[in-house]
Write a structure and sequence with these properties.
There is one protein chain. The protein has 89 residues and is an all-alpha fold. The protein has a domain of 31 residues. It contains four helices and no strands. Helix 1 crosses helix 2. The relative contact order is 0.05. The model has no long low-confidence stretch (mean pLDDT 81).
């Protein structure tokens, strides 16, 4: 069943509950219409602004060192060679 079928069934079988639904939807629409659409709306950051937030770690950074150590440990424990670019056949 989709939402249209459910609304139709509610209207036919439960008219009092349907009226409650319609009145709550009307109140919600009125409340949304009263909100100002000014500066309160969220704006999507520009590409330059979002790019400035993601800076790579330096090679000596503690987070980078911890990540490299965990990556090396994972490779060593998996006993799998690191392959970049070419498949081993």
């Amino acid at each position: 069943m989709n939402s249209s079928n459910l609304r139709d069934r509610l209207k036919r079988k439960h008219p009092s509950e349907y009226q409650v639904l319609v009145s709550s939807e009307t109140q919600a629409k009125e409340a949304n219409a009263e909100k100002p659409a000014g500066n309160e709306a969220q704006k999507q950051p520009s590409l330059a602004a979002s790019d400035g937030k993601s800076r790579p770690w330096s090679i000596d950074c503690p987070q980078s060192l911890r990540l490299h150590r965990k990556l090396a440990e994972m490779i060593a424990l998996a006993d799998q060679p690191v392959v970049t670019g070419k498949k081993l056949c």
